[in-house]
TrEMBL record:
Stretches assigned to the Flagellar basal-body/hook protein C-terminal domain: 196-238
Gene: flgF
UniProt cross-references to Pfam families, sorted A to Z: Flg_bb_rod, Flg_bbr_C, LlgE_F_G_D1
Protein name per the record: Flagellar basal-body rod protein FlgF
Subunit structure: The basal body constitutes a major portion of the flagellar organelle and consists of five rings (E,L,P,S, and M) mounted on a central rod. The rod consists of about 26 subunits of FlgG in the distal portion, and FlgB, FlgC and FlgF are thought to build up the proximal portion of the rod with about 6 subunits each.
SUPFAM superfamilies: Flagellar hook protein flgE
Residues covered by the Flagellar basal body rod protein N-terminal domain: 8-35
The family this protein is said to belong to: Belongs to the flagella basal body rod proteins family.
Keywords, ordered alphabetically: Bacterial flagellum, Cell projection, Cilium, Flagellum
Cell location: Bacterial flagellum basal body
């Protein structure tokens, strides 16, 4: 019975973590460029039960363990905004973003703006990179135009080109928060174009996420009921054994 409780507990813990992932997806339905996540599970087996005095060999015990999350990297729908600093990617490209420590991260969130110095930054204030590094505009630049390959031009002429990359194995990307990802050995964008005046929406499907939440909740309740019945069975067994005379 102890083994049954432990197996059920491992499933219950995994379900609670899975609920957190689904809740995060639902909370980011309207987050620009957000990529939905899924929990990844693996089976962990134990060679023998604790009781070893049975004549027949004990069966292998199978536990469940969640060891990470995977990302749905499918492109979200593009919404046109008309804002010249809003840019979306049609294809597999990612915008390169500079972190305060000098490292490079990537995002699909193209809701850019100019800070108080005229530097192009993300919505959270991090520098957007071009092939020549961060870029700063002045009042003399006037209207900013971004072509489908990321080339930036103003009334003063060409100003640079957005640094765009691709991931050979997108599932190896690691989320670090603020809709940013890290990836080792990113390569120049292979298949994609920039859409000025548009933003890529989240690829979270609300109907699917609600269905997952209901399914997980029901599974959690089932496991809880099974654990309670197992616990009641153990108490009854202890009570009856304790009432027997030696």
């Amino acid at each position: 019975m102890e083994n049954a409780q432990l197996i059920s507990l491992s499933r219950q813990i995994a379900l609670r973590n899975q609920i957190d992932v689904v809740a995060s997806n639902m909370a980011n339905i309207n987050t620009t460029g957000f990529k939905a996540q899924r929990m990844v599970f693996e089976e962990v087996t134990m060679p023998l039960a604790e009781a070893s005095e049975f004549k027949q060999s004990d069966q292998r015990l199978s536990y469940v363990q969640d060891y990470g999350t995977s990302f749905n990297m499918l492109q979200g729908s593009v919404r046109l905004t008309g804002n010249e600093l809003d840019v979306a990617v049609d294809g597999d490209g990612w915008f390169a973003i500079a972190m305060p420590d000098g490292s490079e991260t990537y995002t699909r969130d193209g809701s850019f703006k100019l800070d108080n110095t005229g530097k192009l930054v993300t919505s959270t204030g991090k520098e957007v990179l071009t092939d020549g590094g961060p870029i700063t505009f002045t009042a003399q630049d006037g209207k900013i135009t971004i072509s489908d390959d990321g080339t930036i031009s103003t009334e003063l002429g060409l100003r640079g080109k957005l640094k765009m990359v691709s991931f050979e194995t997108p599932q190896m990307a690691k989320a670090i928060g603020e809709n940013l990802y890290t990836y080792e050995n990113a390569i120049p964008m292979r298949n994609g174009k920039v859409i000025q005046g548009g933003l890529e929406g989240s690829n979270v499907n609300s109907i699917i996420e609600v269905a997952h939440m209901i399914e997980i909740t029901r599974a959690y309740e089932t496991v809880s009921t099974m654990m309670q019945k197992t616990d009641d069975l153990r108490e009854n067994a202890i009570s009856k054994l304790g009432s027997l005379r030696a």
